[in-house]
Amino acid sequence: MSFVVLTSNGTFSLITGLRRSFLVVVAAFLAVGIGLAPANANPKYAGIVIDANTGKVLYNENGDSLRYPASLTKMMTLYMVFEALESGRISLSSRVPVSKNAAAEPPSKLGVGAGRSVTVEQAILALVTRSANDIATAVAEHLGGSERRFAEMMTAKARSLGMSRTTYRNAHGLPNSAQTTTARDQAILSLALRQHYPQYYKYFSTRSFRFGNSTIGNHNRLLGAVRGVDGIKTGYTRASGFNLATSAQANGRSIVAVVMGGTTSARRNAQMTSLVQRYLPRASTRGNGALIAKKNTAVAPATVAALPVVLPQRGPLPTARYSGATTASAFVSPNSQTGAGSTALGAMTAPVPAAPVPQPAPAFIPDQGASLAEAAPSPSVAAATAQTASIDTTTTASIPQSGWIVQVGTSPERETAMGLLTKAQERGGNILRSATPFTVAFDTGSATVYRARFGGFDDQRSAVNACNALKKKGIGCWAASATQ
């Protein structure tokens, strides 16, 4: 048997026998290579696919490597809006004022003038479809009092959802070297949006909406083009590349997938299409899909100053300021059982966290055994004792108001204090796995210093034991009781 092919010079050639077998092998190799091109050819690439019914990771390439979220940021902005809607703090008809600062944001934008307003529902639709930066800032200022404060709230929410490597610095995703995430974290957020707010998740499937005399179309071209796709969000900056988070459901099967760092929107869309078509049929029809536990949170007050910021796990952390209560502190130095005055973290140094450097992506290797639960650290208890020493009286309203905390250092720079927390976690290992890191600013009268602390200890003994165990690793610390 023989067949005819078109050669590279435009002529036809008769292929038979061994030559045909060789070409079949070459063609198969090329097809595989084309399928992997986004990963192999692009060092910014990261991708993950998760079975939304079971939490099983079906595909993972650089899923835990730091990347820039770009406008995927607005998924968390919308999560915060949905939370406020559910709590009754706002309604779909509530007005969101657009400040001069918000109106000045660069495109993509809705173009609402300063001093005007939009409804919450219009804001949702503008974020979903046009990915409007001006509206994202307006929402942040409306719900958080300021965009900076809202970003701190977003980071806190990310930690509570298990997004351990995500830090927000703004509500829109415009370039900021400290605003980083991972493909896995964005998949977790996609699942949380679906699971926690199904009544509002439907907005992510909006193809277009009318605003004034204009029809605003959705940037997500997979809607209506790829079977099963029902959302979620696109994103792009020059630093991030082309990002896309996608949800797909069909025949009882359900997945969420994230692609980050695409070189063009077309290649990003092609890669996502390939992932959906490959892995949706492989997803399980069993499981209830309740993968992201919803935290019990009190309704946030209109003034954001009283909102506690508790950020477990790793990553750059927001700052809280003292105002209101007292803490009694027990100090353990690196070289003695008691001491007073030193809050240095041993000989450790804490450089300012650098912006993520895209890493070359490995060849495609399905991660068949991984699950969302693997990202959660396991708690452990340090077995040691220490003595209580001098008292440091401060005032605070933003740290935990009960239980005990451990302080590992102070610095005149917040970034350095955050670095101390990261270093302590890396060096302390399981000692701090169940602790919640945060920084607090304290006015000494002549300057502001930032204290690096871990909360989440139930009593004095557990805090002092942890501090003493840290001391054995060369980490100076305080064990502090937070009381009203």
Automatic annotation (TrEMBL):
Name used for this protein in its record: D-alanyl-D-alanine carboxypeptidase
Domain of life (superkingdom): Bacteria
Record organism: Peteryoungia desertarenae
PANTHER family: D-ALANYL-D-ALANINE CARBOXYPEPTIDASE, TRAFFICKING PROTEIN PARTICLE COMPLEX SUBUNIT 12
Record GO terms (molecular function): carboxypeptidase activity
Annotated keywords: Carboxypeptidase, Cell shape, Cell wall biogenesis/degradation, Hydrolase, Membrane, Peptidoglycan synthesis, Protease, Signal, Transmembrane, Transmembrane helix
A Pfam family assignment: Peptidase_S11
UniProt cross-references to InterPro entries, sorted A to Z: Beta-lactam/transpept-like, Peptidase_S11, Peptidase_S11_N, SPOR-like_dom, SPOR-like_sf
Keyword Iron-sulfur: no
Keyword DNA-binding in record: no
Family: Belongs to the peptidase S11 family.
Residues covered by the SPOR domain: 398-484
TM regions (residue ranges): 21-39
